[in-house]
Structure of DUF7330 domain-containing protein:
Amino acid sequence: MTITEGVFDSSQLPVAPIDDGKRAVSAEDQSSDLPPSYSQVASSPEPIGRRPRATNYLYISEQYNSLKGSYAIDPSMSIPVSVLPKLEDGETEMDRRNLRLRAEHGSVTAAILLLPPQGDESDDVKRNRTLLEASSEHGTVNIRVRTADAVPPFHLKVRSPHGSLTVEIPRSFHGFLRLKKEHSSIKLSDELASESTQLSVVDGVSMWFVGDFSLFKGEWEGDEVEADTTHGRITVRYADEQAGASRPGFFGRLLGL
C-alpha cells in the first residue's frame, strides 16, 4: 500500500472479505444502537415521587373540579405581595395562609411537605406557625402532612360540611386536635390515641392533646389541627402508619413513599 504525503486515498485501504453466512446489517438494525432521539426522551414519563419545588403563600381554588397534588412549603420564602391573591375582608398579612386549597364541588387530596426555613421572613410577617387550610363544600378532604428535618409548628384547618375528612400527621406532631362533627363520627388510630390525652367532648367538639401535656403552658403556639364536618366522618392517624402496605396509595405515589 502506498500513501502519498498529504493525500488520503481510501481506495488503497484493505477490504474485509464478506461472509455470506452472516446476515447483512440493515439501517434499521444500526439505528437500534443509536441513542434515543430528543422526541423519545422528552416523551418519557417523569419518575414518580419527585419532590415538588418549594413555594409559599400558595392559593388554589376550583369550583367544579377536584384538587390533587403534592406541595412543598417553605414558610420563609419571600413572595412579592403584588403577585399574591387578594386577602378576604378583615384579613391582614398575618392571616395569609402558607397554603390554601379549596374545592367547591370536588374533593381535595394533598400531600404537604413542610421544609425548614431557608431564610428570614419579611419584616412585615413574623409568626411562629405555618398556616395550612384545605376545604370543600361537597367533597371529601384528604390531607397528609410530612416534615423535613426540624420545622416550625403548623396549624392546619380542614373543613367539609358534606364530605369526610382524613388527616395524616407526622410523628413529630405535638399539640392539639380540635375535631368538630354533628351527624358523624370521629376516629383516631390506635397508635395516635395511645399518644393522646382526651380533654373534652362538648357541643360536638372533641379536644385531644398529642404528646406530653405537661409542656402546655398558657397560650398555645405549637402544632394544631382543626377539623370540621357536619355529615362526614373524621379520621386522624400518623402519616407513616400504612408504610408497610403492599401497594402504595395516592399519597405514597405523590411523594415516592
Observations:
- The CA atoms of residues 126 and 157 lie 20 Å apart.
- Residues 54-255 form one domain.
